[in-house]
């Protein structure tokens, strides 16, 4: 214990005596640890934020998606991930009207599983566009929705009202504006906005809409994951909601490309997912271009985690390489330091230092270099991670686990790369060491 | 007759054993040093006195022979035990001082006690006493580079006495000093010998210094060629 304290003191002393050299030696460790910590912080933050936003959509919901039949089976997970956010922007084949999911199918489905299915939440994406009012504009992503029937309570209206049943039935030209868009167009004056007539430019066409209400930002989740795109891109685009029927009119469709099945809490989403897929496989068995895929919250999260896991391990590998290179640097400098201090080692041996305490002295010095490097790396990594996570708009959660692992890892590098030089020092012949010039 | 501290019997040391260059440096040296004696070992360079010093100092092992240091069989000792012997029984004083650089005087003196496992407070007190004894009480916090040669050697002597060793082994302690400071260092050895009753083995090539000691052992070509009392002792 006494020797440990003395050795740590000695190590700090020798670091202080060679500041520049110590810093350069630590650089590899610092870069390695910092990159691992940064990416883990970002990864954890994004995964957690996505998981939270997913679970706020309802953990029990099942997403249905109309997708082109692909030849390669292995592209399936990727395409469903892409389809979730970019379905309408797909350059692939556009489904014919006859390919779409129809209201008939849905009522059959509900009849087949009346105990499990609570309702359908359908949204129809029209595309990216711009709303204009007296020269002010705001970028919007237009989607048609039927949310009114059962999820209206979840939408927090700032001003005005949600779509009426009549609006939804008739396909009225009524739109719900986000708080952010309100800022852009009406200087935040919600009262002025409601009832105003705006022009919506979307898909190279112009439509006239009446603002029916303004909803509060943050509550714009529309159960289709549509805002995932704006979240991921960090863009200033907000959702403009119009009645589903209105969206279908604009898109000239009568069916649906994607929708959410809201199920009872007591039902098992995985079982129901398989049943629903079976149901649609039967309907689409003669359709060779399209199929319907069902995705549960759990499987979306697992896809997300797989992607983040891959990215994390790739960066961790790079960080690991930097750490090994850093470790070799530490070893090199320890060898130099031992050569410089050969006489000191000889003197210590003559004064009665056993080999074990010479070895301990240099291993501890190497550990101290690595741990200080590790701490600097952790600090830089946390800062970089927080900055990056903020940039993509995720809530920051610095990963305590990765900090502890990094500390342990830098200590292990210290021991591993310090052992050989330290052992060399311990085995020096005291006579030769004393005479070393 | 007082107790025998160092007992060397037929010490042979060969280097490069088993090669065509095999070289026998010591050809069977026997000598005794008694408790409280101030002995010098004198020889020209190449006489084997450094090799002999390394063996006496437990830094090296003889090829053949017996060595007992303060009732401990040094030949039979393992490496770890040799460290202990050096730590507890021998106090080294080198020609080049060999203080640990960037470490102040008091910590240098504490070092042998650190390896002996003596608690910090005791270490510190003893180091202060020793520095007072060698007349360095006012420079305890100085770094070696801030001290003159004579001052460094006095710190080194204080360090040599830290664990109350059986012998102080001084290898050309005045070799790097001018005659005035060399004189001071020699006076310090006499003081330690007379007032503290220390057993001191002085290794030197200078007959003049050797004459000050009680007994002079002369070696040449790896053999003891003479033993006599010092003229000025």
Outline of the structure:
With 437 residues, chain A is α+β, with helices and mostly antiparallel strands. Chain A has helices at residues 2-17, 19-56, 76-86, 103-112, 148-151, 165-170, 179-186, 190-193, 227-233, 244-251, 269-283, 297-340, 342-350, 355-391, 400-426, 430-435; strands at 62-68, 117-133, 136-145, 157-160, 174-178, 197-202, 205-215, 238-243, 258-263, 290-296. Residues 72-91 and 219-234 of chain A have low confidence and may be disordered.
Unreliable segments of 5+ consecutive residues of chain B: none
Strand content of the residues of chain A, in percent? 15-25%
Please state the CA-atom Rg of chain A, rounded to the nearest Å. 31 Å
Number of domains of chain B: 1
CATH superfamily of chain B: P-loop containing nucleotide triphosphate hydrolases
Strand line-up in the sheet with most strands of chain B: 6-7-8-3-9-10
Overall number of strands of chain B: 10
Overall structural domain count of chain A = 2
Shape of chain B: globular
Largest sheet of chain A: 10 strands, mixed
Question: Helices and strands of chain B, in N-to-C order?
Answer: EEEHEEHEHHHEHEHEE
At CATH level 2, the architecture of chain B is 3-Layer(aba) Sandwich
**CATH topology of chain B, what is it called?**
Rossmann fold
Termini Cα gap of chain B: 19 Å
SSE succession of chain A: HHEHHEEHEHEHHEEHEHEHEHHHHH
Number of strands of chain A: 10
Helix and strand layout, with pairings?
The complex is a heterodimer of chains A (437) and B (233).
Chain A: H1 2-17, H2 19-56, E1 62-68, H3 76-86, H4 103-112, E2 117-133, E3 136-145, H5 148-151, E4 157-160, H6 165-170, E5 174-178, H7 179-186, H8 190-193, E6 197-202, E7 205-215, H9 227-233, E8 238-243, H10 244-251, E9 258-263, H11 269-283, E10 290-296, H12 297-340, H13 342-350, H14 355-391, H15 400-426, H16 430-435
Parallel strand pairs in A: 3-8, 5-7
Antiparallel strand pairs in A: 1-9, 1-10, 2-3, 2-6, 2-9, 4-7, 6-7
Chain B: E1 4-15, E2 23-34, E3 38-42, H1 49-56, E4 64-69, E5 72-73, H2 79-89, E6 90-93, H3 105-115, H4 120-133, H5 149-160, E7 167-171, H6 179-195, E8 200-204, H7 207-210, E9 215-220, E10 223-229
Parallel strand pairs in B: 3-8, 3-9, 6-7, 7-8
Antiparallel strand pairs in B: 1-2, 1-4, 4-5, 9-10
């Amino acid at each position: 214990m006494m020797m440990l304290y003395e050795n740590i003191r000695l190590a700090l002393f020798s670091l202080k005596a060679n500041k520049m050299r110590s810093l350069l030696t630590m650089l590899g460790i610092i870069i390695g640890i910092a990159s691992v910590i940064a990416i883990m912080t970002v990864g954890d933050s994004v995964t957690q934020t996505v998981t939270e936003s997913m679970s706020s959509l309802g953990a029990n919901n099942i997403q249905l998606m109309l997708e082109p039949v692909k030849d390669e089976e292995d592209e399936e997970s990727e395409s469903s991930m892409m389809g979730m956010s970019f379905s309408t922007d797909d350059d692939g084949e556009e489904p014919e009207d006859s390919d779409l999911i129809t209201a008939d199918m849905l009522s059959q489905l509900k009849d087949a599983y009346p105990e499990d299915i609570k309702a359908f939440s359908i949204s129809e994406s029209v595309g990216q566009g711009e709303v204009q009012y007296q020269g002010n504009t705001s970028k919007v992503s237009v989607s048609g929705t039927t949310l009114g029937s059962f999820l209206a309570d979840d939408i927090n209206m700032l001003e005005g009202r949600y779509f009426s049943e009549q609006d939804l039935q008739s396909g009225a030209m009524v739109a719900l504006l986000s708080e952010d868009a309100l800022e852009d167009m009406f200087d935040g004056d919600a009262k002025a906005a409601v009832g105003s007539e705006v022009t919506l430019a979307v898909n190279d066409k112009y439509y006239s809409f009446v603002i029916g209400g303004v909803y509060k930002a943050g509550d714009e989740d529309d159960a289709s994951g549509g805002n995932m795109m704006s979240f991921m891109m960090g863009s200033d685009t907000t959702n403009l909601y119009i009645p589903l029927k209105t969206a279908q009119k604009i898109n000239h469709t009568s069916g649906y490309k994607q929708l959410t099945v809201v199920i009872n809490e007591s039902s098992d989403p995985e079982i129901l997912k398989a049943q629903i897929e079976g149901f649609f496989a039967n309907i689409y068995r003669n359709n060779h271009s399209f199929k319907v895929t069902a995705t549960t919250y759990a499987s979306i999260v697992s896809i997300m985690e797989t992607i983040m896991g891959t990215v994390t391990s790739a960066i961790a590998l790079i960080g690991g390489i930097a750490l090994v290179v850093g470790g070799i640097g530490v070893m090199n400098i320890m060898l130099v330091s031992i050569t410089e201090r050969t006489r000191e080692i000889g003197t210590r041996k003559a004064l009665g230092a056993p080999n074990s305490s010479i070895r301990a002295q240099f291993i501890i010095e190497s550990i101290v270099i690595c741990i200080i490097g590790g701490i600097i790396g952790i600090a830089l990594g946390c800062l970089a991670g927080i900055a990056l996570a903020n940039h993509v708009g995720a809530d920051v959660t610095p990963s305590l686990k990765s900090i502890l692992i990094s500390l342990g890892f830098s200590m292990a590098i210290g021991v591993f790369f310090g052992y050989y030089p330290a052992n060399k020092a311990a085995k020096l012949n005291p006579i030769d060491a004393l005479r070393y010039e | 007759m007082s107790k025998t501290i160092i007992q060397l019997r037929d010490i042979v040391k060969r280097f490069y054993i088993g090669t065509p260059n095999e070289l026998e440096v010591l050809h069977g040296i026997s000598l005794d040093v008694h408790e409280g004696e101030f002995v010098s070992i004198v020889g020209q360079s190449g006489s084997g006195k450094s090799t002999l010093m390394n063996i006496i100092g437990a830094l090296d092992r003889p090829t053949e022979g017996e060595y007992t240091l303060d009732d401990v069989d040094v030949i039979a000792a393992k490496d770890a035990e040799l460290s202990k012997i050096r730590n507890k029984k021998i106090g080294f004083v080198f020609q080049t001082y060999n203080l640990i650089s960037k470490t102040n005087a008091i910590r240098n003196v504490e070092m042998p006690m650190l390896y002996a496992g003596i608690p910090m407070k005791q270490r510190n007190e003893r180091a202060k006493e020793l520095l007072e004894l060698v007349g360095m009480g006012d420079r305890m916090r100085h770094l070696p580079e801030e001290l003159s040669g004579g001052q460094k050697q006095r710190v080194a002597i204080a360090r040599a006495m830290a664990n109350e060793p059986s012998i102080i082994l001084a290898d050309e302690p005045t070799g790097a000093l001018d005659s005035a400071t060399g004189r001071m260092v020699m006076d310090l050895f006499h003081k330690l010998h007379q007032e503290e009753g220390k057993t001191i083995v002085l290794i030197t090539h200078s007959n003049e210094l050797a004459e000050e000691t009680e007994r002079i052992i002369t070696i040449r070509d790896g053999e003891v060629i003479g033993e006599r009392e010092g003229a000025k002792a």
